[in-house]
Amino acid sequence: MGAGTLEHTSDWGVGGMAGVQVGAGATSTVPWAALDHAALGLPATTDLPSARALDALVHAAAGVAYLKWFEYRLAAAMHAELVEPFEDEDRRELDAFTRCAATIATTMSVTQGAARTLLTDAVALRDRLPLVAECLRDGVVTPHHIRTIVSRTELIDGQCYAALVDADIARALRRPGSWSPARMETMVDKMVHRRDPDAVRERRDAAKQNREFTVETGRDGMATAMDTRSAEDVAALAEAVRRLAEQVCPKDTRSKAARASDAHYALVTQTEFGCDCDRPITDCRYRNIDLEKFAATAPRIVIHLVTDTTTLDGPVPAPENERVCRSPQHLPRPTTESTPAAESDTGAGSGSAASASAASVSTEAVAAQQVSSGADFEVQAESAADTTLTESVVTKSGSVDPVAAQPVSPDTEVATGPVSPDAEVAAGSVSPDQPDVTAHAEAAGGDAAGDIIADDEAAGEEEPGDEAEEGPHGCEESVGLDTVDGVGFLPGIGIISGAHVRGLAADPRTVIRPLGDGTDTPLPATQPSDPYRPSAALDAYIRARDLFCTWPGCNRPAWDADLDHITEYDHTHPDRGGRTDATGLGAKCRFHHLLKTFGDFVDDQYPDPTDPSRLIRTITIPDGRTVLGPAFTGHDVHPGLDTIVFGDPPAPRPPGLTERRRPAPRSEEKHARRRQERNRNRLRNLGLPATPAEAADYEPPPF
Questions:
Q1: I need a surface site. Which of 27, 32, 545, 644 has the fewest CB within 10 A?
Q2: d(CA 483, CA 446)
Q3: pTM here?
Q4: Helix, strand or coil for residue 505?
């Protein structure tokens, strides 16, 4: 049966040999260039001023997303007709899927691999991620992010909770804000780990057994070596390579990547490494680097891992209303008894344990030479529950009441809300003599999650005497989600599972440093002697909160970025602006920091009026367009960050007779102009007039 249909398809292909081209078919199509641009919302010409050209670019990007969604829908329709009827019985080497992909590849003049990817993504969006597909259709997400979402959710295919993950991701995508590839990966991994803790742990155990070292011979006498190891080992190795690769003078002729390759080989083989500039050895002190001396004098490598104390304690029971399937893709199961879903809608489900004081894990490695040669990390253990320590004392409460998980509506954000203010927290302290305090965060171990429940109106009315039947809100089968586990964030790597975090925390080389003492006492925001410099606690908090550079689209980890004063710090008159506090600082990579400082870009950051614990970030480009900052931050990975507060910076000291004075009229004018621009943007965002001209035309809405 399958063979006959496929032969028919082949006959159709032979019959279409008479000069058939891409876009030509039974019905003639109008070339895109001949379509009415006005009907497409496009300008009639591309010769436009930069501001209008940028508007057209934004509109065209939304159109590209829609066309890509349309392309996926067409590919999915072809898959439904040519593949699905035969995929369960077709054992040929060139099966129906291969032939369907070949049809697309031949017609579109693309490779077979590209056509297979198109079909795979189209089916995944149709069956596994329908809500994400709607985001693509509406221009909420760009096409280049779809491959990331599809590939990183592949292992939940066929699971009952796949619909829940789809809803979680779609809800996050529809938040206002921008996305970078790294933020997108972090968000998707967070949602998958939230719903799939057991499978994640099993996959990691299997992956650890399959670690390997491989060599692939390439062309031109080159080869590629690949070492597959745990994320923390690779992060330590990468840092060791980076440090050694930086031991060159500015006249070194190699690229950064080439220097890293040479540094890695030198570390592995214990051979020489040095600068390749053409200066004499007496003029360049980097010509020959003694690896033993470098390893002995180099500071320890610290790998920052942001996590929660609840994650360190282990998984917690999942809410009852999340333990059964809510997927509308599955048929309901008829029954005359109340279902767990119905019971959970009338009463509160079991919740997760309250979050404790934010904690961080830092895995400290020895110098570069020892890391590269496989030596153990330096041993320095510190328990979060040991009350006898003198350097960092942590006191846990005797009991922690679980937070009841209330029913969540489909409009509620999943796994991103702040923890309950009533949750008990564990106490801890950050010693002022610990400048290398690492990542810090706090969150409830089990976040409240929404359910995908279909409209009950489709159930209809029951006739008297008929057997009651459940509405189409799910199959009511167990999804195996008995526990909810937290996650950790490893800069440069991304999300890791709670089991992985606990494995690192149990290592005696690991140091755990909670942030704060578990009370509402504000933490110090600045260095005692310098109000311009943030405290170690604030430094760690900003980096854990921002995750990456906050410039739209940037992937640079916050731990490798600068902490920038959003409003320029006035060293002469600190009271005029530029506060060193959680609201006034943000992570920016060096490039975007320089672009903000010396370019005409104006950034702003202020508390969200609807949720003061969160921040609204904006970048105003030179032509006046304002772009929103990141849509996904550390608050969404560790919602307990919302509960951490910092004190006000110290009051500026009165000027003395020996105070240094630097008249800088140009800087003051620039700072004043930027403050005015930020104020105007805020007024416009609130729908209020920002200029005298706008005030003259402003008419408040009738009430």
A1: 27
A2: 8
A3: 0.68
A4: helix
